[in-house]
Amino acid sequence: MRLRFWGVRGSIPTPGESTVRYGGNTPCTEIRLGNDELIILDAGTGIRKLGDQLMARGQSVHATVLITHPHWDHIQGFPFFKPAFVSGNTLVIVGTERPEKKLSEIVSDQMNRIYFPVQLNELKATLTFRPVKDEQNLDVYGAKVRTMYVNHPGFTVAYRIEFNGKTLVYISDNEPYDRGAAASLENFEDLVKDKFEETNGDPNQRVFEFCRDADLLIHDATYTPEEYVDRVGWGHSHYLFALRVAAEAGVRKLCLFHHDPNHSDNDVDKIVKACRNEIKRMGYSFECFAAEENLELEL
Ligand SMILES: [Zn+2]
Questions:
Q1: Rounded to the nearest whole angstrom, what is the distance from the C-alpha of residue 10 to the centroid of ligand 1?
Q2: Which of 24, 114, 125, 164 could potentially form a cystine with 14 if both were Cys, beta carbons 3.0 to 4.6 Å apart?
Q3: How far is the CA of 82 from the centre of ligand 1 (A)?
Q4: For 66, phi and psi rounded to 5 degrees?
């Protein structure tokens, strides 16, 4: 399995000189399986450049797009993904939906004519929508893909992808679940809260189990622990929690993801340094690094 990051920033794009190294595009990661089959994780603004690169190859595009949830930063690049405009291309879009709104509407609403000049039904590629819920297993080009609801407002899923003996877990947006705080957080779904509440002991155990023995865990590390204190209920993690997930799950590598839009490259450097110090102090054995636009990895 090969990976390339096209967008690693959370919440909103952050162009500018202070974010040029880690990058300012919102979440999008390209995954290539054995025969170059293409899986795309999230359709944030990073997907635009991925689309341009795919067009430049001059071949038809067949891809499965796994969307964690439809907050803007995870779907707003889709209307600018050029392969969607070309007939003969096929895109399968996987994501969560709600009782009152289908996945196809969730994606197309952002292209409503009030907000956007081209509507979804004008796209020439063949689009298929595949809604998912908690704990579903999918076969994507021979890869075993599993979903799990995580602790983030709305229905948000994590994806675990197993292929050819390697495992990648992608948890772009997730907050540590705290039984005390949960009752007062009204923008979180009751159905998702129930999943955490049903877990014996530490409710985050279900996340640890989902990540068990992964070769690479890409996890939300939006905040520092100090920043998190004022942002409980916003649906994101501080880096110490990301380290805890990695340690409890026994993963081999942890990739810090969804960088806060207020964090400069130097701030992200400091977070990586703090994480590595903590890993040493705690005697953990996994590697830790920050996601960076254009970084390529092989599992
Ligand atoms: Zn996000």
A1: 5
A2: 24
A3: 22
A4: -95, 110
Number of domains in the chain: 1
In terms of residue numbers, what domain contains 47?
A: 2-298
Reported pTM: 0.98
CATH code where residue 123 lies: 3.60.15.10
What is the 35 CA–ligand 1 centroid distance (Å)? 30
In three-state secondary structure terms, 112 is coil
| Whole-number Å distance between alpha carbons of 16 and 29 | 21
Q: How many helices (H) and strands (E) does the chain have?
A: 9, 14
The protein residues having their C-beta less than 5 angstroms from ligand 1 (an ion) are: 10, 73, 173
Residue 164 CA, ligand 1 centroid: distance in Å: 29
Helix axis angle for 239-249 and 265-282, nearest 10°, is: 40
Q: How far is the CA of 258 from the centre of ligand 1 (A)?
A: 7
